[in-house]
Amino acid sequence: xxxxxxxxxxxxxxxxxxxxxxxxxxxxxxxxxxxxxxxxxxxxxxxxxxxxxxxxxxxxxxxxxxxxxxxx
Length: 72
What we know:
mainly beta; two-stranded antiparallel ribbon
């Protein structure tokens, strides 16, 4: 099993976000169906000259997707 990930820029709620998934370095996609998840991870900005918050919100899954790669 292999995995890959992509980070999207900060985005407003409800906006469409597009990212490009690439296979791991020096590899190619195999033919087949792939499944993934979209997670919301919040990183609040740390105020200058003050400590960062000790409590951060938990990551939250906000969607799932599938895509197919065909031989060709």
